[in-house]
Amino acid sequence: MGGELRGNSLNIFKSQSAPPTSWSTISFLPEISSSYRRRFISPLSARCPGFVGCSQVFWGKSARPGAGSRELEAIGKPAPLILIRGGGDLATGVAARLWRSGFAVVVTEIAQPRAVRRLVALAEAVYAGRVEVEDLRAVRVEGAEEVRRALETGAIPVVVDSEAAIRRRLEPAALVDGRMRKAPPETGIGGGPFVIGLGPGFTAGQDCHAVVETNRGHTMGRVIWEGIALPDTQIPESVAGVDVDRVLRAPADGVLRARLDLGSLVRKGELVADVDGTALVAPFDGALRGLLHDGLRAKQGEKVGDLDPRADPTYCRLISDKSLAVGGGVLEALLTRPEIRRLLGG
Q: How far apart are CA 250 and CA 299, in angstroms?
């Protein structure tokens, strides 16, 4: 691979002898303010002032995406271990990005996870014992030894450990707090050698090393090295023109009982679930994308479900663009660490 700098662009070629026709162009923006640089530009980019980055990924003929950590193990090189607190849909997007990039991933959860988009949440392994989300396979395990055995099979271990105490046994290369509690972490910056927080509630440089923006918009998925993420708007993103109504909320206090399976196509007014006998009905036609686990207690007004107005059941089993964007931000933050790149062979 070769390249040449022309003005504010770097043209990259397939080889040093390739004809002068660029196949990827990386732009340099010297006008970026110093405050923006401190907040969003990683320490790795400091070697190239003004460098923002390139979103294109090129796979060579022999490369294969989704290889996970097993190929590193196959050549005798242990994969760097990342501990993720929480196994909801956002955290699962992070796990997918990391596992497919060669990291070993372990997830910790509470005893009764409250994930809503359960078909794309590794947390569901706490209830089911094992789950598959796209190409990821997660299994519930107990203790550090079972974690190691699960990792050897290429699975993602899920441990019921609300305090993430197992980190002391596993000694992960980094800890990602993906619980979306919108509150500072209990462990603080001492929770691991490198701590990444997802969304509001974290302050980069204070209670974690980096924050990844989770709010939809121009900065979604960006790594924040100084300060905080955008505040929670309490308004879900619009899907096919529907925002607030697509979130299903408990009609009363009590125990939720599902009346339909996830992925079901529903009609407006159809019974989706009930909470202690109070009906929860669909506000419009759509696909039931999420619903709190059957038998959990809910408070009136609490989010317990998600209805997709696009009415395509296949979307219910696909990790969302938002989750993958946030996972990409975590991956970027990890790769700024030279010690982690060395573990990956870089």
A: 6
Which of 157, 139, 140 has its CA nearest to residue 148?
Answer: 157
Question: Mean pLDDT, to the nearest integer, of 278-282?
Answer: 98
**How confident is the model over 6-46, as pLDDT tens digits?**
444 444 444 444 444 433 433 334 454 555 555 554 444 43
Residue located via tokens 């030279």: 338
Cα gap 40→37, rounded to integer Å = 5
Task: Quickly tell me which residue has 């569901």 as its tokens.
Answer: 124
Return the structure tokens found at 223: 């790594």
Distance CA 123, CA 113 (A): 6
pTM above 0.85, yes or no: no
In the chain the domains, ranked by start, together with CATH numbers, are 2-47 (no CATH), 70-230+322-343 (3.40.50), 244-308 (2.40.50.100)
Segment holding 139, helix H or strand E: strand 136-141
Burial of 166 (0-12, 13-18, 19+ CB in 10 A): buried
